[in-house]
Amino acid sequence: MGKSKTQKPKSRAAKRAVTPPIELNVKRPASPSQRQKVAVLGLRGDNGVQKKKAARGKQLSTKQKQRKEKMMERAEAINEKLASKRDVSIQKSRVVQGRRGNWEVLNEKMQDDLEEALALATVDNPVSKFKV
After folding, report:
1. Which H or E run includes 14?
2. How far apart are CA 33 and CA 39, in angstroms?
3. Per-residue pLDDT tens for 51-96?
4. In the prediction, which pLDDT does 13 show?
5. Exposed, middle or buried: residue 71 (CB in 10 Å: 0-12, 13-18, 19+)?
6. Cβ pair 14, 8 in contact under 8 A
7. Reduced to 3 states, what is the DSSP secondary structure of residue 120?
């Protein structure tokens, strides 16, 4: 640790020395919260970057019209196929829902049917031949 020298005012070190900050007595307004910033962005009319919409009244060329017609015909054909498939699916779901009934009711119905069949059979043949 050597002796400390006083700097000459025109020396390079003196020119590079840190200058004390200037203190101003001006108060900044409080910065808005994050929610306020987002809210302000939402109020803007442009709403960010958007693609400009194409002109709607554009005249289509003959080939473009033909392509559009073909596309519409294909779309109709596909919709017809899907409608028929949808109908088949609805019919299948009705069958499944019908099977889903209350098992106790179904068992009683089957027992009644069995009893009716036995009653009809006993008219022609004795009951002793049948096993229940």
Report:
1. helix 12-16
2. 10
3. 677 666 788 899 999 999 999 999 999 999 999 999 999 999 988 8
4. 78
5. exposed
6. yes
7. helix
